[in-house]
Specification:
single chain; 89 residues
């Protein structure tokens, strides 16, 4: 008998700010990171926008959220809402 090993990939957790909640059941999250310039050695801000699943439509614009990677839910949605860290004012 041979043993079958199953390796489950860990989900990536990312923190970002909700920039759009106009879609039904989806949000757009802007994730900011800092990258060092190769020549000038200064840190620059780079932003990536991802679409995340929000089935209850609980997020508002400006909320700080945590999203995790998951299987593709649609053509552009590959993340799922985990929790809302901070509500916008």
């Amino acid at each position: 008998m041979s043993q079958v090993k199953t390796t489950e990939a860990k989900a990536r957790l990312l923190t970002g700010v909700v920039v759009s909640n106009k879609m039904d059941g989806s949000i757009t999250v802007a994730i900011e990171r800092k990258v060092k310039h190769p020549l000038y050695h200064k840190y620059m801000r780079r932003t990536t926008k991802v679409h995340a699943d929000d089935p209850q439509n609980t997020c508002g614009m400006g909320d700080t959220v945590i999203v995790e990677s998951c299987r593709p839910l649609s053509k552009t949605k590959h993340f799922r809402l985990v929790e809302i860290k901070e509500r916008s004012k």
